[in-house]
Amino acid sequence: MGRWRQQADGAALLRQGWDELRRAAAFGQMMFLRRVAATVLVGLAAIMALFSSRDPFLGDTMVVAARDLSPGTVVEAGQLGLRRLPAQAVPDGAARSPAAVLGRTLAAPVRRGEALTDVRLTGPDLTRSISSNPELMSVPLRLADPGVAALLHAGVTVDVVAAGPQQGEPVVLARAARVLAVLESGPGSAERDGKLVLVALDPVAASRVAATSLAQSLTVTVH
Questions:
Q1: Fewer C-beta within 10 Å: the chain N or C terminus?
Q2: Rounded to two decimals, what is the model's pTM?
Q3: Taking Cα atoms as reference points, which of 98, 93, 90, 94 lies closest to residue 54?
Q4: In the CATH hierarchy, which fold is given to the domain comprising 60-121?
């Protein structure tokens, strides 16, 4: 009888020890899972913070044309609209507010809904888009023969020529000028005035061409 009681007591102690081991293992597993869950939550929070700072879902606002616009158009408020796109879909150089483009002249045609970017407008950004030379300047030319301007387009290389002091002796005012844009005549210009051609020149040639254009008609030869 005494041996049976000792065996029973021993079995009870073993069960108690086993139960304590199971509880300890369960507690350790729970703590491990809690640590894993905490790590995952911290990672998710970091990812959400990164994406919220870039705001890809809300997008960025850019200025677009409210209707088709032709080169030479002076931009007015009624010609503009705003559009919101995901940040990665907004073109480089896109204007973000109407104030950035109002009063500026378009150097290229723009379709309705198209973003107004820096290379669509006359100015230093357009000049830098064709050359890394920071000294280049843009000069508008009103050519003697409007038909010549109709043959030109952005990117063409031309020499700027004026009539010489004697008949049949033209003077080359600038060589290897790059055409930036061919602009339509403004509303106040006569049709015979033709189009303005915007070319990029170094400062010396730009001054010479601009001064000569005040007194003489100019033309270009195409490379």
A1: N
A2: 0.61
A3: 90
A4: Type Iii Antifreeze Protein Isoform Hplc 12 (3.90.1210)
- Whether 95 and 68 have beta carbons less than 8 Å apart is answered as no
Q: What is the pLDDT of residues 24-75, one digit of tens each?
A: 555 556 665 566 555 655 566 666 655 554 454 567 899 999 999 988 888 9
Domain coordinates of the chain in residue numbers? 1-54, 60-121, 125-222
pLDDT in tens, 112-135: 999 999 888 888 888 888 777 888
Q: Are 223 and 176 in contact (CB under 8 A)?
A: yes
Q: Using alpha carbons, select from 149, 71, 150, 67 the residue that is nearest to residue 113.
A: 67
Q: Please choose, from the candidates 80, 74, 40, the residue with its C-alpha nearest in 3D space to the C-alpha of residue 62.
A: 80
CB 95 within 8 A of CB 101: yes
Sheet (strand 218-222) strand order = 137-142, 196-201, 171-183, 157-162, 218-222
Cβ–Cβ < 8 Å for 139, 202: no
